[in-house]
Amino acid sequence: MSTRDPSPYAELEVLEVGATALVEDLGRPGMASLGVSPSGAADRGAHALGARLLGQAPELASVEVVGGLVVRAVGSVTAVVTGAAGTVTVDGRPVGHGAPFLVRDGQLLTLTRATAGLRSYLGVRGGFAVAPVLGSRSSDTLSGLGPPALRVGDVVPVGHPDGAPGGELLVDVAPVRAPLTGAVELEAMPGPRLAWLADQARLTSGGWSVAADSDRVGVRFSGPALGRSSTRGGTEVPSEGLVRGAVQVPPTGVPVVFLADHPVTGGYPVVAVLTEHACDLAAQLVPGQPVRLRLRSTQRGT
Question: Can you give the pTM of this predicted structure?
Answer without folding.
Answer: 0.92
